[in-house]
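Chapter review: from sequence to fold.
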Amino acid sequence: MSSMSLPFYQKQHRHYDRAYRDSTLSSTMQQYRQEEKRSTASHSHKVRSKFSDEMLETSSGSPQMKRAKQNYHSAGHEYISGFTDTKDERIKHSKANLFAGESHYFERDATEEHSVQKTAMHKSRKVAIRESAERVSLNKHIYDTQEFHRRLREDSLLRVPEFIIKPRSHTVWEKQNVKLHCTVSGWPEPRVTWSKNNVTINVHTDPGKYVIDSKFGVHSLEINNCDFDDTAQYRASAMNAKGELSAFASIVVKRFKAEHGDISFHSGGHAHHSYDYFPGDPHMKFDVHIVEKFEVSFGKEGDTLSLGCTVVVHPSLKRFQPEIQWWHDGVQLKPSEWVQMHWSGESATLTFTHLNKEDEGLYIMRVLTKSGYEQHSGYVFVRDADAEVAGAPAAPLDVYCLDANKDYVIVSWKQPAVDGGSSIVGYFVDRCEVRTGHWVQCNDTPVKFARFPVTGLVEGRSYIFRVRAVNHVGISRPSRISEPVAALDPSDKARLKGLPLAPWTGQIIVTEEEPAEGVVPGQPRELTVTEATKSYVVLSWKPPGQRGHEGIMYYVEKCVAGTEDWQRVNPEIPVKSPRFALFDLAEGKSYRFRVRSANSAGIGEPSEATEFTEVTDKLDIPKPPQHVIPSRNTDTSMVVTWEESKDAKELVGYYIEASIDGSGKWEPCNNKPVKGKRFICHGLQTGQLYKFQVRAVNAAGLSQFSPESEALEVKAALAPPTPPYGITVLESVHDSMVLGWKQPQFQGGSDITGYFVDYLEVIDGIPGKWKEAHIKAITDRAYRIHDLKENMVYQFQVRAVNMAGVGLPSLPSDKFKCEEWTIAVPGPPHDVMYTEVRKNSLVLLWKAPIYTGRSEVTGYYADIREADADDEKWRSVNETETSKRYIKVQGLKEGVIYVFRVRAVNRAGVGKPSDLTEPVTAETPPDTKEIAVNVDDDGVISLNFECADMPDGSKFVWSKNYEELIDSSRVTAETKGGKTKMIFNDPGKDDLGIYSCVVTGTDGVSSSYTIDEAELLRLLELSHEHKFPVVPLKSELAVELLEKGQVRFWLEAEHLSPNGQCKFVFNDKEIKNDEKYKIKVDPKTGLVEMTMEKLEDIDEGTYTVQLQDGKASNQSSLVLIGDVFKELKKEAEFQRGEWIRKQGPHFVEYLGWEVNNDCSVLLKCKVANIKKETSIIWYKDDREIMFDEKHDFKDGVCTLLVQQFSKKDAGVYEIVLKDDRGRDSSVLRLLEKAFNDVISEVCRAAAQTATDLKVQSTEHGIRIYSFVSYYLDDLKIIWYYRDTKLASTDRVKNGVTGEQLWLQINEPTEKDKGTYTLELFDGKAGHKKSVELSGTVFDEAFAEFQRLKQAAIAEKNRARVIGGLPDVVTIQEGKSLNLTCNVWGEPVPTVSWLKNDRELVGDAHLILKFESGKFASFTITDVRTTDSGKYSILVKNKYGTETGDFTVSVFIPEDEELQAEQQQEVKKK
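The token string follows.
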């Protein structure tokens, strides 16, 4: 590679120069070149002389012929370090290269080859060929010897990795590629991995970003398309069995900031320039921590807002200050009239002096140091200012100048998110000349398109612009003003700035030479219509190639469609820049355009004309987005995603709106359009259900809203917990160890359900692979790992689990050796934690040590010191040991940070201290609530605690003496919302102790309350006082009706003493016990009652009961007036009538129905007061139902059984009871809905009688069937195959035969395997039966089907005698006998005739025929007596055989009696 082909940033580094190599590498490369020359010089003796000359020329180093090296020592083998190589391949490749590079034989041979090359040209061809052959033989001998020594010395050649060439640092520009190289030696060949800021690089996480390569010991890391985030420290780590070595290099990515040539790494940053940015020590590293970070902020137009962070840099050097940068939506900010930046050396602030909607977006504060950068980001939301007119729209935003010339400026803006409740009809554009303050409205009627050409400008003057939105209610506030723009020709503007023209304008060349005379410019090139609306058309082109040295100008011409008349648009003043806007074109018409160049020599030829362009707004309003999906983020925000608008052109972004479900009020989530298809909506109310909708924005307007999303509750999304920490060993024996650890600091929004422990072995300082200690999650934070190796060193890691999943593993623990602990003192307590943190106290909790030493643990000491104090500052909280596993630490100093530890004690002494707790600040958290004791009016004692901001999923956990409540029968816990109460069921001495309550899922919200003997006595006395000031009532005064219509007033007190007194008062008058009123008091039960025989109109009023029992008193009243009294009186009269009715035969339960298990319907009622003379008559539709037997009133139940209930049984049923004491009847209407209910119940009963599905094979296929006890048409039958409803077809049929429900599968195949389900729908619910037709079931059924099918085929096609033969034939001797019968069979059967079981053969006397495969004939031409006997026809084919028998009797006419006897004998036979 030549130096010209290298990138500039590579030319500056030495490792791209051939001379920059150490001696070892130079020797290796020289040896490689010599070996390559020698291999190309060795050929066979049969090579022709001409080729030998060329070979000698090549071996002398000619560059014309290069061949790949072929020898016995190395082969080109590529692999990517760390990913694709294998250990065997690396060792094999390393061995070959190692011996090839270190063999002394090669050094001697290289020296000899060097001398040979000098004299080769002077030798004859024959000598050269002989020497070449000798060298080949020598090389083979060297290789064999080398292989022998390799086997002897293989184990002695192991070497640690060594960097021959280390990677070098680079400084590159953005978008460029950079490559780091290093050369590593060692054996076995080291494996090289690359890291960025101590994080291993994985090429698969960002495909195409990184390329890692390794060839011949040279390793490289290539970073493609560098960006600012690639500025970092990179490390190459080489590792083999002997050890590990690392080398470091830094990459600095520069960014283009100025438009032309001015390039600096941190341009525009806000730092103190009096300090040096880069320190003198190149190895110094700065650690940056950003604390007190700004969060998501909300502001309003016109407000002042500040964002700030505190930055801590270590080491803190005044001379070397970090650089603070602020970014807004990917654009670095600079101080302006809108934003101000400040860096005090400790805090960085960004202040908005006057908020605008343009300021909405994502803000990033970046702290840059020599070691890299740290950053923090937050979103700023800006609400619209209140409209000057209620209902007017919000102000537009992002007003800027899209294009400017000497006589026009095209202004563009973005539509607001809020239209004020009425659609925006358009916009007014205002202009103001700079430094005048006089605003002029540019358009008389509102424009809907978000671009507008402003004309009538004065050339050379600068203008600013603003836009106002208009709806039917009013006009919005004006937008923020645009940046000033000058009304100048672009060429003049570029010349004034001293900069080249904008990309679309081309370039005008100005020289100091005299212009050439007589050169007319050529045709302008590439004329295009860059923008077309109904208001204007913008043209752009490139200058002509032929123009001389003189500046040129342009004339623009137009032509209306349908004509060839070209009109010059600017006949008087030509334009200087190759860009021009045309106004005053007829809307709806089509035009073509062309341009001519001109100078002092004349006007050139016109350019090629454009295509026809219609003067109209070609940009359409975008289509609404689709599929809006919200998802949870935090407890005040949600992530909203959507599907982008299809076929949208020049899309500006999207507006998102949110609404609380059911409110109907929509609020904007953003006031500045956002791009993409995802947005985080902040500022939502926790626990509320929100819906979202989105619409798209472009210059043509706003789309319709998308369909509303589903409502989703705002609450924090669950996440896996963070890693546990503080892993320590609690006990160690020869083959197991007990670990303890601390729970994660962040639980992920749900309780931790368990932990997983992994371990690995550490051998000679090299860690092995991680192994799982167990499979099932454990709940405790202490775990014993079994089956460890004695004296082996181990490391451990722990992962926590919650509902969201398994979290990341903890950092590997310290290295612990598995060995038997033999110390006498106990091990360390574990799981030390604090709770109930207040400004001067807290409670410390711990668990007992796993290892107790040589005696039981007798107590504990708790130690305390300030977090930043030395170890000598430890002091004990308790002077004497405590047997409890908790202690309350008093006397803390408010605001001081403390740490704690605990030590266990046994007879041998004090053991090892526990791990330190996390540092805790002695301060009372805001809104802290304490447990309060309460005794209610009933004397119930309870402890009450509340948590104002209780997160979702959190719960209250009560404990006694900081342990789980064992006897839960003594207390009852009640929780409602953020309040909880623990009630003492029967307070006593067993309830003494410390009661604490902890709120899970919070930052230590907890409290406790101590109940000692004195406190218990106080509470019991208070409870007693609450109980007895009044007579407690179990029930207030109530009224009820007795059986005969009597009225009973009653109340029940908790208890009454024998001295208790009671008074009944009616309308302020005391009621006495007399004939109308019967008053009764039962002190034992506390029941007080008064009975009235009959309720009359004069009894309407207020009834009061007054109780007095010693000091306690109470009363209760009942008001019986108006409708209440009337209803009570009516009910009393009814009850009296009912009592009278029940004096004769009557119904206790009226006529109803039930369905039996056999699907019959039983009409039944229950009667009472029946005697023998009582008659019962059943009616249906006023027709008496006749019974053969008299009804039996067994158990007082009358029944009517209806078998096989169907539609014909619908009607009105009535049963009548009567005797001499009276008559009663009950009617049941089984019509419409009532009848349907009965039918549904019958169907349900029938469906429940369905048997399990069975499989039966038939000759046609497989039948699946079930039986029900009763089938009726209302029972709907549905068959499913694999949850898909089956339709009846010719192959798959279903039906009902009697009580059998069947599904017939004709000619089944493998595709018919699966689950078949029969659903019996009773009108309300379905009842399913399923069978699995697969596996053995299908195979057996299919085999049986095949058998039956073959049997049916055989039965159908077997040979048989259909008919035609008589049983007995009686014939006279000498006559002719002719019998014919029909025969069937497929294939056609063979036919044979038998006489007395012997086969007959046809002749002249006996003629046997078989015609057409169907007709068999039997003929005896001259019957003789010898022809008498038993004859048979035998038909046979492959499917079977059948015979037909008949008897022939020949008689002599003269002897008729003999003939009769013969016939009798034949019949007997």
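Two observations follow directly from the output. The radius of gyration is 54 Å. Residues 1312 and 1333 are 8 Å apart (CA to CA).
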